[in-house]
Design a protein that fits this description.
By secondary structure, this protein is of the alpha+beta class. The chain is 33% helix and 25% strand.
């Protein structure tokens, strides 16, 4: 599945986020993947995805400007491929 701005998403329940200076490390206990989240804004959005009805509302709530949404959409689709985030 491809994540869109209208997708309802969440952090995968088997993923732990560890804060780092550069953003965070995301570790999936099921597939044992370790992913670097290299920007604090991405970390903030990923942490709060489950609290919002859509990705667009999560981006808005974090104050992400609309011109940056395409890059977040691309990043979240990559994170879905790695099973860090998933559709609800």
């Amino acid at each position: 599945m491809s994540i869109t701005l209208e997708s309802a998403c969440e952090l995968h329940p088997q993923v732990a986020l560890r804060p780092e200076e550069f953003g965070a490390l995301a570790y999936h206990y099921g597939n044992r993947r370790l992913i670097f989240l290299k920007h604090p804004d991405v970390v903030a959005v990923v942490k709060t995805l489950g609290e919002h009805d859509t990705l667009a509302s999560a981006l808005s709530a974090q104050g992400i400007e609309a011109n940056r949404w395409p890059s977040f959409l691309a990043a979240l689709n990559q994170l879905e491929t790695s099973e860090i985030v998933r559709a609800r």
